[in-house]
Amino acid sequence: MLLERREDFFRPFRELQREIDRLFEDFFTPSLRRSADVYRFTPDIDVYETEKELVIEAEIPGMDRKDITVKVEDNVLKISGEKKLEREHKDRNYRVFERSYGKFERCMVLPDYVDTEKIKAKYENGVLTITIPKREEVKAKVVDVKVE
């Protein structure tokens, strides 16, 4: 009898834990956003910094470079485009359809130490690489300090 009461006591906590796990799982899968039974395409990005530049890499497979737009406005980098759904094959009976399509836009505020006038972008093998050099006056200078 005591064991049954204990199980009843912990049941809501286990249900809550399952719901929290589901929410985190949904949150940490950003490339597929489900809305109205249609998957919307959102490119995943990596951002890293070297001594001389800031680099943004965006995974945008299956697109033509003319369908991708890169702009900087008020120090905000905007990557946008549209991955078109080309399902003209009426003779195909799809069992699974997981590839995502649609308009997308990714925006990011750029740090003030980059030179947006010298930005470069290259699209190759489904990856858009944007390189933004750092301004000369803010590049890190390395000074060796003698420890006594």
UniProtKB/TrEMBL annotation:
InterPro entries for the chain: A-crystallin/Hsp20_dom (IPR002068), CS_dom (IPR007052), HSP20-like_chaperone (IPR008978), Small_HSP (IPR031107)
All residue ranges annotated as the SHSP domain in the record: 36-148
Residues in CS domain copies: 40-143
Family indicated by similarity: Belongs to the small heat shock protein (HSP20) family.
UniProt-recorded name of the protein: Hsp20/alpha crystallin family protein
Organism: Pseudothermotoga hypogea
Organism taxonomic ancestry: Bacteria, Thermotogati, Thermotogota, Thermotogae, Thermotogales
